[in-house]
Amino acid sequence: MFEVTFIGAFVAGILAFLSPCVLPIIPAYLSYISGVGVEEVQRENRPFNTRIFLSALFFVIGFSIVFTLLGAGASFIGQFLRAYQTEIAKVGGGLVIFFGLHFAGAFLRPNFLRELIGVEAFLVALYLFKVISKDAFLNLTGALAVVLALYLFGAHEYLYRQLKKEAKAKASYLGAFLIGLVFAFGWTPCIGPVLGSILFLASQQETVREGAAMLFLFSLGLGIPFLVAGLLFSLFLNFVKKFGRFFGVVEFVGGVLLIALGILLVLEKLSWFASLGVGI
User: Fold this and answer.
1) Is the per-residue pLDDT at 188 higher than 70?
2) Distance (Å, rounded) from C-alpha 149 to C-alpha 255?
């Protein structure tokens, strides 16, 4: 059986690849780690380039190893925190909601604090009219408090500053592998919010193997498009240009999915979500 949470990890990897601060720089990244210039590819106009594909492959292997080990470690640590699992899930749900708001660009809105207060007022109304229970009201309010605290401490500003960082590597297969390792530890927060959410879910798994499997699936979701981009590099250049118009949609959908996941965690409904699993 393959739970929806594991399928979600794979989809999260694809969303991370399609995010607007990752996808546009993939051509430059592949060009840099392979040593093959974008202009050269456009000039030759060949559908396949073996060197770019192999560089992409070593790059994907590098970050997949690190992500999988992180997933195993998260699950291992999670086993020692079972006694506080409920409390950790609620606080972690607030953190996932924060990541979702960041991914959707909500923190860039000039009236974000006012809108956050409006959401809390709406929750109060739902509670007073007995639409939601007292426990649900307190849990959701606690999650909003986590979001507010992180916002006031400037966590969102740190994430947006990180978007401006660029990685460096030597143009070789070994260099591609090494930058894959660096990628896993220090990539932009376009991946950070999604990865942080998946790592938290991995920490809730019963075994180390399940935690590692979840992050391996995330790596596949992120890595397969890399390999396709490396294999069909010239076609990928045209795809990036055309796909740019949908970046806002990708951000919004990805953010909403993370927020929904965080709410399920806070309300302790993730088991219901996982029960939608299907055989595969």
Assistant:
1) no
2) 19
- Per 3-state DSSP, the chain is made up of helix, strand and coil in percentages (nearest 5) of 80, 0, 20
Q: Are 93 and 265 in contact (CB under 8 A)?
A: yes
The model's pLDDT over 119-157, given as tens digits with 9 standing for 90+, comes to 999 999 999 999 999 999 999 999 999 999 999 998 888
Please give the Cα distance from 185 to 75 (Å, whole number). 18
- Asked if 197 contacts 263 with a C-beta cutoff of 8 angstroms, the reply is no
Into how many domains does the chain fold? 1
Report the 10 Å Cβ neighbour count for 256.
14
Joined together, the tokens standing for residue 165 give 């960082």
172-187: pLDDT as tens digits: 677 778 777 766 765 5
Backbone torsion region of residue 10, taken as left when φ is above 0, otherwise alpha when ψ lies between -120 and 50, otherwise beta:
alpha
List CB contacts of 128: < 8 A, sequence separation 6 or more.
Answer: none
User: Has residue 279 been placed in a domain?
Assistant: no
Helices (H), the chain: 4-18, 26-34, 38-44, 50-79, 85-103, 112-128, 134-152, 155-162, 173-186, 192-203, 208-231, 233-243, 247-266, 270-274
127 within some domain: yes
Output the pTM of the full model.
0.63
**Position 156 in a domain:** yes
Structure tokens at 198: 């998946």
In the block, which residue shows the tokens 């990805």? 254
Q: Which two tokens stand for residue 161?
A: 């500053």
Q: State the amino acid at position 192 in one-letter form.
A: G
Range of the domain at 170: 4-274
What residue type is 182 in one-letter code? Answer: V
Phi-psi region of 113 (alpha: psi -120 to 50; beta: other; left: phi over 0): alpha
Question: Is residue 280 situated within a structural domain?
Answer: no
